[in-house]
Structure formats: structure tokens, C-alpha cells
Amino acid sequence: MLPGHSVKTNIGVFLGLAVAAVIYYQPFGTLSPVYNYIIAGFGLLAHIWGCYSYVIGKGKSPVLTLIGVAPLALFLSGVIPGFHPPTYCVVLIPIGLLVLVLLGDSTAAERRQAWRSSLAINRDARQENSGMGIIAVVAALALALGGWYYYHQNLPVTEQEARKQAVERYPALGVRDSALNREFIARYNRLRATNKDYFKDAGWPLKLAAESQAAVDQTQAKR
Questions:
Q1: Mean pLDDT of all residues belonging to the chain
Q2: Which residue did the predictor score with more confidence, 37 or 155?
Q3: Are 85 and 49 contained in the same domain?
Q4: Contact 218/41 with Cβ under 8 angstroms?
Q5: Highest mean pLDDT, choosing among 31-35, 81-85, 134-138, 175-179
Q6: CA-wise closest residue to 15 among 57, 44, 53
Q7: Do residues 163 and 138 share a domain?
Q8: Which of 154, 171, 199 is the last residue of a domain?
Q9: Tens-place pLDDT, residues 123-177
């Protein structure tokens, strides 16, 4: 791989997977939809950057970046209100990254020639890149753990607590016949009939309220 690309790959892919892990283990719903989109978008852009750097670093076509990016993009699309990506997309994420890893390195011959012509310079460069890689991984890990802790602290523990937080965060939810109340009830009935697994998460009232509010906002914006 070309010098410098390994560090970019480490940072980008790690941030993308960290965001995916937060979403998977701590489903969104405690923040407004706007923040959900920003966080998911940041993770996706970081992942794209990491996969792109890896593919280019191996001397391959940038189009191959889609192999590693598409599964994560499908998974992160779950933050879109009313859209539920297939469960198997979680398995596709490591498979896509594995395919990128198995790609041949077209720069290997070029690097061997450069190494033979300037051994000392390349040794220093490798040591520098190795140190930067360690720093990048540690920084990304700290950021991921901090984000996980933040979401964990703000998520409701019981369904009753989630209901209380939903009404506090979205007051219109407690107003009978309000647009948000009607949207919430409609989504609740639809999910009860089509996706009962949705309610296995204790925080579903808060999550459903956030999705309902986003749908109401979109409807009002179109008028």
C-alpha cells in the first residue's frame, strides 16, 4: 500500500464502524432526527474516506470503494423514519471489508523497488506511519467509547421511562388529535401488525416518537 494511506484507512473505517456499533447496540431515539442524520452522515463519510484511501493505496479503481461502503450505507439508512433495512446487512459489513482486504496490491512491485533503492528512508517512513497508525486507533477508540457512554447514559432503561421521556421531549404527543399524536398512533398500529420485533427494545416509545415527529416535519415542509 502507498505511504500514508494506511493511517487514513484506520481512522476512516474505525470511525464508520464505531458509529455503526453505537446505532446497533444503542438505537437512536434520544436525540432529534437532525442530530441522528448528522451523526450517521459523519460515520458514513468517514467510512467512505477510509475505504477510498485503502483502495487507492492498493492502486485499484475508486469504484471498488462501493464494496466496503454499500453495506454500511444500507445499515445506517435505518435512521430514516419508517425505513427498516434488512437484518442481514449487518453481516454484509465485515464481508465487504474482507473483500477489500483480499484485493491484490498493485503497488507492491513499485514499493519493493523503492525500498531497495532507498532502504534507510523507507525504514524511517514505515516507523513514522506505524506510530501515526497507533495514535489514530487510540484516538478513534476513545471517541467511540465516549460516544457509546453518552448514548448509554441518555437511553431509557424501562418502557415506562421511555414513555415519560417521549412526552417530555415531544409535548404535542400528549395532545389528543394533534398531528404528532395521530402519526404516532398510526405508526404504532402499523408496526404492531407488520414488525412486532420493533417493540422488543424498551426504548421504543421514544424512538417511535422521534420517527413520528420527523414524519410530521417532512409533511409540513412539503406544504
A1: 75
A2: 37
A3: yes
A4: no
A5: 175-179
A6: 44
A7: no
A8: 154
A9: 544 544 444 455 455 555 655 555 555 555 555 557 787 788 888 888 888 888 8
Lowest mean pLDDT of 15-24, 27-36, 47-56, name the range: 27-36
Neighbours of 124 (CB within 10 A): 11
69 shares a domain with 48: yes
Domain boundary among 102, 131, 154: 154
| Inter-residue contact 216 to 173 (CB < 8 Å) | no
Higher pLDDT, 184 or 2: 184
Q: What is d(CA 173, CA 185) in angstroms, rounded to the nearest whole number?
A: 10
Question: SS in 3 state form for the chain?
Answer: CCCCHHHHHHHHHHHHHHHHHHHHHCCCCCCCHHHHHHHHHHHHHHHHHHHHHHHHHCCCCHHHHHHHHHHHHHHHHHHCCCCCCCCCHHHHHHHHHHHHHHCCCCCHHHHHHHHHHCHHHHHHHHHHHHHHHHHHHHHHHHHHHHHHHHHHHHCCCCHHHHHHHHHHHCHHHHCCCCHHHHHHHHHHHHHHHHCHHHHHCCCHHHHHHHHHHHHHHHHHHHC
* Percent of the chain at pLDDT exceeding 90: 5
